[in-house]
Design a protein that fits this description.
Length: 361
Amino acid sequence: MKKLENLVRIVADGRHNAFTSMERFNGALYLTYRTSGGHAMSDGAVSLKRSFDDGKSWEDLASPFQSGRNFYEGFLVAFNGKLLMFAGGYEISNEVPVWFLHSREYVSESSDGVNWTPCKEIFPPFPIRFWHPAVLGDALYAAAYRVIRTYFKANVWEVDLLRSKDGFTWEHVSDISRGSTANETALLFDEDRLFAFIRNEGGAGHLALRETVKPFTEWSPEKDFGASLQGPVAARINGRRFLFGRYRAASPRLGTSLIDRGGTELRCYVWEEKIGNWVEYLSFPSGGDCSYPAAVPLDENRMLVSYYSQHEYLDDPGFRDMEGPCDIFLATVRTDGIPEWGRLTPGGREYLKKFGLDRTS
């Protein structure tokens, strides 16, 4: 079975287009992405598209995050009959690199997906950035991260679980990460459990896994995913758990994912209950600055996955990672395929060794 059924490039305008989000709302599919002169440039704005035919054709809509700040991502969430859009925004500066600035989180809402309220900073205001807010029951939850930068000792990285009843006012629920180098953290609700997939910058840069149950105040110890996966996104689609992110093949060799940007690609993993571990499912055509996907169901056997990548330009003279053209892709992916059993995560391989079933070593 061919798991990647179709792949189309839906944005290719010479800009650096990145950080996608998708959501269904009132019979339409909405897509956002950041458009800018480069990954770390100060001219970021959020673009918005809508499709009534599952991504075959798109129309451009006005976005509430166009000016006034250097905006990143535009996370879409359908909640209480409205479509919410969240974006991290930085002060615009041509003198100070964006990674030395503090992001604040902004939100806008729409009743029809077309007309949006002016963007407003969340309350209480704080230097923080969300990662893919998610709905559970009558509340929104978000993993919010921040980096407290110091000049005389190591920076402090923190990730919190927040909750909101309206998307504008938030309260602290629990600490997801302290004392590590964690930032982007994907949440996945599955029955009575909440899973967190935590990007790390230090050491080998491996993804960390934690879980909790209601009221989500006590978290399990961290587990090592065994591979570097950045910009993680997790979703339960057609009865299976899927995990997406930017895989970095070289990071464990050099020991830091901040410096080494070799061997990048967008990967998808699937949870296999029979071995209690994640197994590689699909590698997407991708490379350079890539990943930051979103996934929504298409039908009972397929899903749509949006992502960005520079792989079309890797062989161009003067190509520079994180700068120059970067395009938005939409993939149609089977959800009922078999995993890539020969390409297990280290944890999955160790599990199979216990039963003498590992034939890859």
